[in-house]
Every structure is written in structure tokens, then in C-alpha cells.
From TrEMBL:
Pfam families listed in its UniProt record: 2OG-FeII_Oxy_3
Cofactor(s) named in the record: L-ascorbate
Positions of the Fe2OG dioxygenase domain: 109-206
Protein name stated in the entry: SM-20
Keywords carried by this UniProt record: Dioxygenase, Iron, Metal-binding, Oxidoreductase, Vitamin C
Domain of life: Bacteria
Molecular function GO terms recorded: ferrous iron binding; L-ascorbic acid binding; peptidyl-proline dioxygenase activity
Gene Ontology biological-process entries: cellular response to hypoxia
Length: 214
């Protein structure tokens, strides 16, 4: 299934908007990048995944990996990229990778993604997506899949200025909202939600030996 048969025609044109935003501020929030029907189908497919495949999320990587319910208590399902319902989204993700590398020379190499489920009351305390043990996570993406979400539902993504406690953005996780930001630059947290909260979250990696120009 091709990218433009299921995604909004805006998806391609907004690649330039994303790249320009990353260049100027390192952070982009966009609505209506993807077609509503596709988002609805994507949410259904994700919710229908085997509940046993959802695991309590942890923090850190490899030997430093641990579970800490006081830091985060969401549940995640890693996606292997072979899911047919993801093909259009992954095609778009690859298009973004190429666009970013072409204009910003980040050297993005591969993309990984997971489905995150925040049950009622779940949260994720302030953190940075890039691991201290390496710089391989370079760019983060979050696509929200929460129909009819309002301020009363909570679950906002709170973004902080680099090396600061100053809040720069507080973002409602509304259906189809896309957030893209430099993984190493922006501390952020997820506030407790008052009902189930869903997102498709991903990261572009670089090779450990690569030194980006930007």
C-alpha cells in the first residue's frame, strides 16, 4: 500500500516544514499530517495487538536498563517493522529521514518505533531520549492517537528548554498531532492522564561512529 493512498497529501509537503523547524528551533509540532481515516485504522490495529505483548516500560539501555515505577509506569509494545498496517507510516518515516539527512546532514541511519499505552494515571517523569551510554538516538517522533482528547483529560507532553527548568511547550496529545524534536536537546515529561492515552513513538538512530554536522 503506497504512502499517498492512505496518508494526507499534506504529509509530503510538510516534510519541508519539519526540516525547517528542526533547523531553526530543533522542535516541531504539527496537526493533520496524516489522514483521519488512516489514523483511526492505525489506532484500531495497535489496540488489537496481543495484550501479552505489552510490557512495563523501563529506563536506560542494555546493562543500565531498569524498571522504576516512580519514574515511568506506561506499557510499551516494540514494533518490528513487518506489521502490514505500519507500512505507510514507515514509508513516511523513511521519507523524513532522507529529507533531514539531505538538508541537515544528521546522518540518520535507522528508525525504531513502539506503541506506548499510558493507562489512567500513568506518567513519565522528566527525562531525555538519548542514552548517556551513546549518542545513537538523534531524532524523536511522537504521533498521538487519542480521539476527542481535551484539556480535562491531562496527559500533556511538557517540554523544557535545554539545561533549564523553563517550560517551553505543554502539548495536548490530540488525535493525529505529531511532535518531532532533537533527542539530545530537550528534556521532557508526560503528565498523568485521566483516561487511556496512546501514541506511536519512534527514534532515528545514527551509527555510533558518526559525528553529525548539525
Amino acid at each position: 500500500m503506497g504512502l499517498f493512498s492512505t496518508l494526507s497529501p499534506q504529509a509530503a509537503s510538510q516534510l519541508d516544514v519539519i526540516v525547517s523547524g528542526l533547523y531553526s528551533t530543533g522542535f516541531v509540532v504539527l496537526d493533520h499530517v496524516f489522514d483521519d481515516n488512516y489514523l483511526t485504522c492505525l489506532l484500531k490495529e495497535l489496540i488489537d495487538l496481543n495484550p501479552q505483548e505489552f510490557k512495563p516500560a523501563g529506563i536506560g539501555r542494555e546493562d543500565a536498563y531498569q524498571k522504576n515505577k516512580f519514574v515511568r509506569n506506561d506499557r510499551i509494545h516494540w514494533l518490528d517493522g513487518d506489521e502490514s498496517f505500519l507500512s505507510s507510516y514507515l514509508t513516511w518515516a523513511e521519507s523524513l529521514r532522507l529529507a533531514v539527512n539531505r538538508r541537515l546532514f544528521l546522518g540518520l541511519y535507522e528508525y525504531e518505533c513502539m506503541f506506548a499505552h499510558y493507562p489512567e494515571g500513568a506518567f513519565y517523569k522528566r527525562h531525555i531520549d538519548a542514552f548517556k551510554t551513546g549518542i545513537n538516538r538523534r531524532l524523536s517522533t511522537v504521533l498521538y492517537l487519542n480521539p476527542q482528547w481535551g484539556p480535562q483529560d491531562g496527559g500533556e507532553l511538557v517540554m523544557y528548554a535545554p539545561d533549564s527548568n523553563r517550560i517551553t511547550h505543554q502539548i495536548l496529545p490530540t488525535m493525529g498531532r505529531l511532535v518531532v524534536f532533537l533527542s539530545e536537546e530537550f528534556p521532557h515529561e508526560v503528565l498523568p492522564a485521566k483516561r487511556a492515552r496512546y501514541s506511536l513513538t519512534g527514534w532515528y538512530r545514527i551509527n555510533e561512529g558518526h559525528h553529525p554536522a548539525f
